[in-house]
Amino acid sequence: ITNNDKTNMYRANDLNRDQSYFLFNTTREQLDYLRFPLGNLLKDETRDIAKKLELNVADKPDSQDICFVPNGDYSSVIRKFRPNSFKSGKILDVSGNNIGDHEGIINYTIGQRKGLGIALGYPAYVTNINMKKNEVTIGSFDELKRDGMYVNKLNFMKYENINDKLNVDTKIRYNDKGNPSIIEQVDDTVKVYFGNGVSAITPGQAAVFYENNDVIGGGWIKSSFD
User: Fold this and answer.
1) From CA 43, how far away is CA 54, in angstroms rounded?
2) Chain-centroid distance, C-alpha 66
3) Is 210 helix (H, G, I), strand (E, B) or coil?
């Protein structure tokens, strides 16, 4: 991530290592004090510099897991803070029919296909998770797609507010390449319109908006709409 004008953030040259999705919530005030000196380099170039400087991290393997989760046991961490996530409940089809039971919504994520334990006669995906009712809904891939979403708890870097509709690329997860979209701000919420529909929009995930390599900012997905 490069940061030359002090009040904006940009994607890194190495898009496979770009961390701007996680840093979207950085404020304009904080950017004034931040510099990202590796933003113009590829990972291999950074390692070469470390080797020339004889740093012992030059060949350190890439991090794969969350550092504060011991032994990759994510379930134990979630059980501590969200014990209701392991409560059994209903599995529904998109028409609201009860077609099975689950052993906790913690075992499911929107867009999931494997491990559902339900045979519908066609490839099935998790299309919705209702935390209040402790229900999981599954359906076809087409039923997984949504035309747009609402994003709140906003933070903007490039602009203080979005005054008009804006054409952007929107990422809804870290490894997402970005989706062409139009965003419109209404009070403290941004409405995002996807031209061709997007699959597996997940409430609680970050949504980050880009103009080319400029990071506009983002927020947290509140809900999707058809």
Assistant:
1) 16
2) 15
3) strand
What is the amino acid identity at position 30?
Q
Backbone torsion region of residue 58, taken as left when φ is above 0, otherwise alpha when ψ lies between -120 and 50, otherwise beta: alpha
Q: b/e for 17-48, b at 16 or more Cβ within 10 A? A: ebebbebbbbebeebeeeeeebbebeeeeebe
**CA-based nearest residue to 1, from 223, 225, 213:** 213
Question: What would the pLDDT profile of 62-76 be if each residue is shown by its tens digit?
Answer: 776 666 666 667 777
Supply angle C-alpha 157, 161, 163, rounded to 5: 135
Query: Distance between CA 138 and CA 149 in Å, rounded?
Result: 19
Q: How far apart are CA 210 and CA 8, in angstroms?
A: 12
Distance CA 226, CA 205 (A): 18
Q: What is the percent of the chain where pLDDT is above 90?
A: 65
State whether residue 146 is helix, strand or coil: strand
Which residue, among 96, 220, 196, 108, has the nearest Cα to 146 in the 3D structure? 196
Secondary structure class of 160 (helix, strand, coil): coil
Whether 122 contacts 75, CB under 8 Å: no
**pTM of the shown model:** 0.86
Q: Where are the alpha helices (DSSP H) in the chain?
A: 28-31, 43-52, 74-81, 141-144
Per-residue model confidence (pLDDT) at position 3? 46
Distance CA 15, CA 95 (A): 40
Structure tokens at 20: 């701007």
